Amino acid sequence: MYYCENCHIASEEPRCPACGGRKLREPQNRDFCFLREMPVEEGEWLRERLREKGVDCVVQPLGDGLRSLLALPTKDCRVFVPWGGYAAAQEVLQEQADAETEFLREQLLRGADRLYLSARLEKKLRKTDPFRAAESVAAYCRRCIEGAGQITDEGRVTNCPRGGHYFRCLAEGFVFLVNSETMELLSVTPIRRG
Ligand SMILES: [Zn+2]
Fold first, then answer.
1. Ligand 1 mean position to 57 CA, how many Å?
2. 56 C-alpha vs ligand 1 centroid, how far in Å?
3. Which residues of 46-83 are buried (b: 16+ CB within 10 A; e: fewer)?
4. What residue ranges define each of the domains in the chain, with the CATH number in brackets?
5. Fewest CB atoms less than 10 Å from the CB: which of 11, 41, 49, 174?
6. For 154-160, what is the mean pLDDT?
């Protein structure tokens, strides 16, 4: 691993992904490394979990000029942990993501029978693999979603009168976006790599 002292980023590449710097060195256990950007409440939650594991953690609120000017709580933060606790922190995040996936999957499974998609989306998918060969596009998508490796809640669908949320499901190399209340499949896009 490499470490950029300017950006506090640990990287597998000999070049810093943030500043492009090439003067990187091996990370030391006490080097604070950028972990992730997340909502402040999640940052505080993570700080507690890490404290239980004896790992320090720095939660830096992200500059939102107006909100800080008005002394309002900021919404997002950057989390840094010492290199010595980096793997433990990744593990906590992974466990949390897995727990969220299972929680959301249960919700989706309750409505899975109602999953539908517009004729327009179906027509579009019919032209591409692997949907081309499927007997029913909706049934194929339903199976993908039921077995999705990761499901995240991406917040409220703004114009949905039933208060549905965007559920983002990663499966079979695609991102399936579903309205959690109406169970409409809104889009299917290939997962972008890198
Ligand atoms: Zn850098």
1. 20
2. 22
3. bbebbeeeebebbeeeeeeeeeeeeeeeeeebbbbbbb
4. 2-97 (no CATH), 115-190 (3.30.2310)
5. 41
6. 92
pLDDT in tens, 58-116: 999 887 666 667 776 668 899 999 999 999 999 999 999 999 999 999 999 999 999 99
- Give the tokens for residue 122: 């179906």
Please, which residues have CB less than 5 A from ligand 1, an ion?
4, 6-7, 16, 18-19, 21
| In 53-174, alpha helices (H) | 65-69, 83-111, 119-126, 137-146
Q: Measured in angstroms, how far is the CA atom of residue 134 from the centroid of ligand 1?
A: 47
| Burial degree of 154 (CB within 10 A; 0-12, 13-18, 19+) | exposed
Q: Looking up tokens 């693999």, which residue turns up?
A: 129
Residue type, 79: V
